[in-house]
Amino acid sequence: MQMDRRSWLAALGAGAASTVAGRAAGAGEAACPSGDGPLRLQDFRPRSMLHAKETRVPTPRFPVIDVHTHFTFARGGRGGAAPDDAIAFNTTAKDALAVMDRKGVRAAVNLTGGFGRGLQQAIDAFDRAHPGRFHTCTEPTWGAFADPRYSQLQADAVEGAARAGAKGLKVLKALGLYLRERGREGPLVQVDDRRFDPMWEACAAHRLPVYIHVSDPEAFFLPIDCTNERYDELGHHPDWSFHGKDFPSHREIMEARDRVLARHPKTLFVGLHVGHDAENLPFVSESLDRFPNLTVELGARIGELGRQPRASRKFFEAYQDRIFFGTDAVPPPEGETTPQQVFKDELYEIYYRFLETEDEYFDYAPAPVPPQGRWRIYGIGLPDGILKKVYYENAERLLGLGA
Ligand SMILES: [Zn+2]
């Protein structure tokens, strides 16, 4: 069953006729609905009665490199086929630097820098204007996929992007879930399609890491019903559901990705969102053990890591040299629709609290209702040695900075 936003709202009892009366809400105080009817899930705002320690971490213990931000986007790129090389700016370098300076973020990797002319504009506005603070990556030109010469064109584009100053290649989940043989039509193109082999190899040749995001949370591949732990989130973003239709399963996408990792051992892959499977740390660990060319990043998954703090802590201990700090930050106003990745001070403070403290049961996103699922998280209190690696030492190696 596929649920659109309207039927989801109806199922929650919301909609145009719905009103929330009750007491006026003050600062930090939720408005409860009046009347004797049953309380609706969307109105439930439980206030924790735990007298738990609350540590504010305004700045990180060590400087941070955020390897996962979206300060620009290739126009139309997310739907699977960018029609041209135009780029959209989500922020200015000046505004981004203000947040970064306040929050101890030394440098940020802007993953979605587009390609061609747009890439050049992004690099000029960020990397060249503020050397050392921004590292912009290129993206595949999905719009050219139907061209019979695509394989070579794409490999050449990677080479051109490297020469223009790109610091990596970003592959969005468009690969495997949106991109089809004829752009938006025809069968879905598989993650391990041979036509991308020259692109992966070009990345190795030009020493560009591949920041890859394929698949999505496991629950996005399941029916949107009363058992789905991301019911709220899928209600807000029904287009994130990959259940049914002709979508492959989460497992099938992971297997296709693994074939790519195996086939291109000289290409370095950064598996975004904790290797695209933060719910399944045993699987991610197994992947890291199998593929020395795989590393991972944390963006938008502290909600998963923080609700299994003991397993997460062990994961960080075991793979401390292969984990990068990242947030998946998208500047407001667009970022506000996904509070777990909104580029602002509060978001960074939550990440620092998660990594540095042993605080218990706190929100993983700056939002009144936890946006990815109704749970809270626990800090994992990393020791200084691991924290330094995750915050910046590993990223320095990735970006070829330092010595
Ligand atoms: Zn992202």
Short description:
The protein has 403 residues and is of the alpha/beta class.
Write the layout of secondary structure elements.
Elements: H1 5-11, E1 64-69, E2 72-74, E3 87-89, H2 93-102, E4 105-110, H3 116-128, E5 134-136, H4 150-164, E6 169-171, H5 174-177, E7 180-182, E8 185-188, H6 197-205, E9 210-212, H7 231-236, H8 250-263, E10 269-271, H9 272-276, H10 281-290, E11 294-297, H11 302-305, H12 309-318, E12 323-324, H13 345-356, H14 384-399
Parallel strand pairs: 1-4, 4-5, 6-9, 9-10, 10-11, 11-12
Antiparallel strand pairs: 2-3, 7-8
Helix pairs in contact: 3-4, 4-6
Give start-end ranges of low-pLDDT stretches: 1-28
The percentage helix is 25-40%
Give the beta-strand count: 12
Shape: globular
Largest sheet: 5 strands, parallel
Strand content: 5-15%
> How large is the count of helical segments?
14
Please give the order of strands in the largest beta sheet. 6-9-10-11-12
What is the end-to-end distance?
55 Å
**In sequence order, what are the helices and strands, one letter per element?**
HEEEHEHEHEHEEHEHHEHHEHHEHH
Bound molecules: zinc ion
The whole-number mean of residue pLDDT values reads 91
SS content category: alpha/beta
> Cα-atom Rg, whole angstroms?
21 Å
